[in-house]
Design a protein that fits this description.
The chain is built from three helices and seven strands, in the order ββββββαβαα. Strand 3 and strand 4 form a beta hairpin. With 131 residues, it is an alpha+beta fold. The mean pLDDT is 88. It has a domain at 2-23 and 40-107. It has a three-stranded mixed sheet with strand order 1-5-6. The chain is globular and about 55 Å long.
Length: 131
C-alpha cells in the first residue's frame, strides 16, 4: 500500500503532483545459501491510494470518502510499467480504475483471485552455490 495526496503539511503554492514509487528493490540476501533473488517488487497486490482533497480548507484526511484506491497485481503492474521507478497518477489511471473505500475489499479480492501460482516470483532463480 502506498499513499499520496495533493495537500501537504507544509505551505504550498499549488497542489502536489501525484506519483508513486514502484521501483523494483533488491531482494534480501540469504546467509545460508550466500545468494539473493534478482530485483523485484515485493507485494502480490498493490493498493495505491490518493487523497483527493486539493485545498487545505477541504482537507479531511481521515474521511475515507475522500480517498481513491487503485488496485493492481504485481504482474499487471510489471506488464503496464515494466521497470519504471515511478508512476504519475494520469498514467496509472490509463491502466486502472479508481474504487472508493466501500468497494476496496472486493477490488483486492478480485485481484488476488486473478493471481496464478508464482506470478510474483522472478522467472529465473540464481544458480545454487551448492550445485
Amino acid at each position: 500500500m502506498k499513499s499520496a495526496g495533493y495537500v501537504q503539511a507544509w505551505i504550498q503554492k499549488s497542489p502536489s503532483k501525484i506519483s508513486f514509487d514502484i521501483a523494483e528493490r533488491n531482494a534480501p540476501w540469504d546467509a545460508r545459501t550466500n545468494t539473493s533473488l534478482p530485483k523485484g517488487r515485493s507485494a502480490d497486490v498493490y493498493v495505491l491510494c490518493v487523497h483527493t482533497d486539493q485545498t487545505r480548507d477541504d482537507c479531511i484526511v481521515h474521511d475515507v470518502a475522500k480517498w481513491d484506491f487503485y488496485v493492481m497485481t504485481v504482474k499487471k503492474l510489471g506488464e503496464a510499467f515494466s521497470s519504471q521507478k515511478t508512476i504519475a497518477l494520469g498514467r496509472l489511471q490509463s491502466h486502472c480504475s479508481a474504487v472508493k473505500y466501500p468497494s476496496l475489499r472486493s477490488a483486492i479480492d478480485t485481484e488476488i483471485d486473478s493471481l496464478q501460482p508464482y506470478d510474483s516470483l522472478p522467472l529465473t532463480l540464481p544458480p545454487s552455490p551448492l550445485a
